[in-house]
């Protein structure tokens, strides 16, 4: 019943170490040869993984820092280190400032929107017995649907003349807009698409959290006279979801710093810089304008944000919630 | 049993409210899907006329879908997507499983170092690595080939991590017994551990395939030829070429790109939820 938040993995881990320790106790000198053999076997089995981790992760991440701190350009045969010149250039750049600010605004809309709606929907689904997997499926659908294709569907929905949104608004007498071409609406519209995509993710995480709340607590609340569904929600459900909520907020925040597909397909960061966000800036500076130093510096800033959030998340997971 | 705890005393008005709210939010969530499918079966004359009807007066689905499949290399895009996702998945399993096994079951000098490398890989957002990976593929002279689409994803730190977690729950006695039977360590990985880790394998396969089928960022950098494009990139190019004049076929193409994953998801909902949330949900 409480798998998602339990510590079973950790318990097994201890017993596994214990088992290994038992095996190690008679490891007196005669057993050293097998130990060497096992080391060779282990590194042999892990060899391909070690090679690719070095070449595809550690080397490139070092490369990003080297490019960000140097004057290297595509095709250059040599480079010299220029300190933080690229970063100074990045932070005085109006486009990058707009991009960073937009990313923050986007996160501040998408995270509360996704988390609150996700929580509400999860609680509603869990509070009844009928149609559970049906509702869960519908709300989770956008999270795995190909966003590049769905962005095209959104564009049709938001089309200034033939789009459903403007047609509906016109019928009920509300003002219409050219949503993706207006600098006041482009970013909020992208944020709504972000909420549409991520709330199902928050929902399934909350559903797992809800399932792990012990029945005893609801029984105790009953004894204390919490008869109404709303009472039990406020006394038991929401307080017990505290740690899970922290986890969900950070996981969604990491995702909310990474929108790219919708920006690329729908607005290309425009109009002006109105909907430009970090990953799109990274892409455009690095691969369209070929400003490698600038692009790499943006990548380092982006990396710093995501790594900080992920480390906070790891701490929370390690201390309070144990998702396996 | 959790099904009972909060459902027990739901009164009739609350039940009605529950369905009312969930049906409303569900309808909003489905709106883009419904609009997409609706436009994909309408002729241009009806698309550009103000109307709320989902079903067209004149069914134009056959024409739109035929156009999507013939005038754009959509079957080619889909084929590229299947090919690239399949090769990536096979290579990831080949590279990650043995590494996960040694991390979970063997004791050797440098194990913690190896695990740290995996954790660093897990921490890095892949887009950050795109510039050096682009330079690397230029140096290897594989830009604009299938190899360029595949090579950055030959290894998945998440895969190693997930398999390691699962292998740790398999008792050591199983490994000892296999050794006594004379199996080599490599045979233990493929013939004992991986079959036992089937749930992790399925979850990881879904995670990997969904991620790479949907990826737009790296293909945009790695390939230029239409004949090499995976579906997200292909459909974006189609959209830019059409410039919004031929909505019917464009929506038909979008529907076809989204469809395979949606059908698979509806068929195996539980596995998808687990795979897509990185095993956080069981």
UniProtKB/TrEMBL annotation, chain A:
Residues 100-313 form the ABC transmembrane type-1 domain. It is found in: Cell membrane. Keywords: Cell membrane, Membrane, Transmembrane, Transmembrane helix, Transport. The chain crosses the membrane at residues 40-69, 104-125, 137-157, 186-208, 229-254, 289-312. GO terms for biological process: transmembrane transport. InterPro entries: ABC_transporter_permease (IPR051393), MetI-like (IPR000515), MetI-like_sf (IPR035906). One of its GO terms (cellular component) is plasma membrane. This is ABC transporter permease. Belongs to the binding-protein-dependent transport system permease family. It comes from Bradyrhizobium forestalis. Pfam families: BPD_transp_1 (PF00528). It is a multi-pass membrane protein.
UniProtKB/TrEMBL annotation, chain B:
The chain crosses the membrane at residues 20-41, 81-104, 113-140, 146-167, 188-210, 247-268. PROSITE patterns: ABC_TM1. It is a multi-pass membrane protein. Gene3D superfamilies: MetI-like (1.10.3720.10). The keyword Ligase does not apply. The keyword Transport applies. Keywords: Cell membrane, Membrane, Transmembrane, Transmembrane helix, Transport. One of its GO terms (biological process) is transmembrane transport. Pfam families: BPD_transp_1 (PF00528). Belongs to the binding-protein-dependent transport system permease family. This is Carbohydrate ABC transporter permease. The lineage of its organism: Bacteria, Pseudomonadati, Pseudomonadota, Alphaproteobacteria, Hyphomicrobiales.
């Amino acid at each position: 019943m409480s798998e998602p938040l339990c510590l079973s993995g950790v318990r097994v881990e201890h017993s596994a170490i214990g088992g290994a320790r038992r095996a190690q106790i008679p490891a007196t000198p005669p057993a050293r040869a097998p130990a060497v053999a096992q080391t060779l076997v282990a590194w042999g089995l892990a060899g391909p993984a070690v090679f690719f981790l070095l070449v595809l992760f550690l080397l490139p991440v070092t490369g990003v820092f080297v490019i960000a701190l140097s004057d290297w350009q595509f095709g250059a045969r040599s480079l010299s280190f220029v300190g933080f010149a690229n970063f100074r250039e990045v932070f005085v750049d109006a486009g990058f400032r707009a991009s960073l600010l937009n990313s923050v605004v986007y996160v501040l809309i998408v995270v509360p929107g996704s988390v609150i709606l996700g929580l509400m929907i999860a609680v509603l689904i869990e509070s009844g017995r009928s149609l559970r997997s049906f509702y869960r499926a519908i709300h989770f659908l956008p999270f795995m649907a190909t966003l590049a294709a769905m962005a095209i569907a959104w564009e049709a929905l938001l089309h200034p003349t033939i789009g459903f949104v403007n047609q509906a608004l016109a019928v009920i007498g509300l003002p219409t807009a050219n949503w993706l071409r207006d600098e006041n609406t482009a970013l909020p519209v992208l944020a709504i698409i972000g909420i549409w995509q991520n709330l199902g993710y928050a929902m399934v995480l909350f559903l797992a959290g809800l399932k792990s709340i012990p029945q005893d607590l609801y029984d105790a609340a009953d004894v204390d006279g919490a008869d109404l569904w709303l009472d039990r929600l406020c006394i038991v459900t929401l307080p017990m979801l505290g740690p899970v909520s922290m986890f969900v907020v950070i996981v969604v925040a990491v995702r909310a710093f990474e929108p790219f597909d919708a920006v690329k397909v729908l607005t290309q960061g425009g109009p002006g810089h109105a909907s430009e966000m970090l990953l799109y800036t990274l892409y455009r500076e690095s691969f369209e304008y070929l400003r490698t130093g600038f692009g790499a510096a943006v990548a380092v800033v982006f990396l710093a944000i995501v790594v900080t959030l992920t480390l906070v998340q790891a701490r929370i997971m390690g201390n309070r919630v144990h998702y396996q | 049993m959790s099904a009972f705890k909060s459902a027990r005393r739901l009164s009739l008005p609350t039940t009605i409210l529950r369905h009312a709210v969930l049906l409303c939010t569900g309808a909003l969530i489905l709106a883009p899907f419904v609009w997409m499918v609706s436009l994909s079966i309408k002729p241009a004359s009806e698309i550009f006329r103000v109307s709320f009807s989902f079903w067209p007066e004149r069914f134009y689905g056959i024409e739109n879908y035929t156009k999507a499949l013939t005038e754009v290399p959509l079957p080619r895009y889909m084929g590229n997507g299947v090919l690239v996702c399949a090769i990536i998945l096979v290579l990831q399993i080949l590279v990650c499983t043995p590494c996960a096994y040694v991390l979970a079951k063997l004791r050797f000098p440098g194990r913690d170092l190896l695990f740290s490398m995996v954790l660093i890989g897990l921490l890095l957002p892949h887009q950050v690595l795109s510039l050096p990976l682009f330079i690397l593929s230029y140096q290897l002279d594989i830009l604009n080939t299938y190899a360029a689409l595949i090579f950055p994803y030959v290894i998945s730190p998440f895969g190693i991590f997930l398999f390691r977690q699962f292998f740790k729950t398999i008792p050591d006695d199983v490994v000892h017994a296999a050794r006594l039977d004379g199996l080599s360590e490599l045979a233990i990985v493929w013939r004992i551990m991986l079959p036992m880790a089937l749930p992790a394998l399925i979850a990881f396969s879904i995670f990997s395939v969904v991620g790479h089928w949907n990826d737009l960022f790296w293909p945009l950098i790695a390939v230029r030829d239409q004949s090499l494009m995976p579906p997200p990139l292909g459909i974006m190019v189609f959209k830019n070429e059409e410039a919004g004049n031929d909505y019917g076929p464009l929506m038909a193409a979008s529907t076809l790109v989204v469809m395979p994953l949606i059908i698979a998801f509806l068929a195996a909902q539980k596995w998808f939820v687990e795979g897509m949330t990185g095993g956080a949900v069981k």
